[in-house]
Amino acid sequence: QSALTQPASVSASPGQSITISCTGTSSDIGTYNFVSWYQKHPGKAPQLIIYEVTNRPSGVSRRFSGSKSGNTASLTISGLLTEDEADYHCSSYTNSDFPVFGGGTKVTVL
Amino acid sequence: QVQLQESGPGLVKPSETLSLTCSVSGGSISRYDWGWIRQPPGKGLQFIGHIFSNGTTNYNPSLNSRGTISVDSANNQISLRLTSMTAADTAIYYCARGLVWSGYYYWGRGTLVTVSS
Fold first, then answer.
1. Under an 8 A CB cutoff, do B107 and A47 touch?
2. Sequence-separated (6 or more) residues with CB below 8 Å from residue B38
3. What are the pLDDT digits (tens) for A49-90?
4. What gap in Å lies between CA B6 and CA B21, rounded to an integer?
5. Which of A73, B48, B102, B105 gives A35 a disulfide partner, CB atoms 3.0 to 4.6 angstroms apart?
């Protein structure tokens, strides 16, 4: 199962919005509404910020939103804050009965 | 407050077997599903395997049956055993609690494992 494709980096100024894409295939994103997103700060544990494409776990800011169209999922961060500077990883369940992850996207707040 | 802490040898020689432990506090582990995920240097996350609360396991086929995950309920620990280690297995190894299809909610901070002679 190939990894999902994410841009290596995205940058924007505080207050702006960014969207991170995550492209898979009909074997994963295209078939399953089991896309999740993780935020990872250096030296810290990954944090689940979106699950099942659009859902936010309790305590996660509403500035984070997820969507999906065809084989591509997206994470949008609105009102960018300096604390949002981190790596973001997407994941999707697959028809091989295990999840596959993307390569990660480094978000830089200018 | 659920907390997970991975522990292991740090350095493993090629062809040896890696044994990692994930110590869990803040809840009984037998009621939940658990996964192991790793991140090689400069690369994305990679699913290693998962153990369901009923003891059923599934593993990433790319590991070629080298992995074994088990639960020690008495000590509230989850273990990962990975045989025939190579340099390609060098990574930060994470344990996590969650649903294999929906996502992992609780994670440890990870432990770096380097494979080198």
1. yes
2. B45, B46, B48, B89, B91, B92, B93, B94
3. 999 999 999 999 999 999 999 999 999 999 999 999 999 999
4. 6
5. A73
Residue B32 and residue B76: Cα distance in Å, rounded? 11
Q: Is A3 at the interface with chain B, CB within 8 A?
A: yes
pLDDT tens digit string along A11-41? 999 999 999 999 999 999 999 999 999 999 9
Q: Which two tokens stand for residue B85?
A: 């280690």
Phi and psi at residue A45, to the nearest 5°: -70, 145
Instruction: Confirm if B78 and B70 have CB atoms less than 8 A apart.
Output: yes
Q: Do A34 and B101 touch (CB under 8 A)?
A: yes
Chain A residue with minimum CA distance to B6: A45
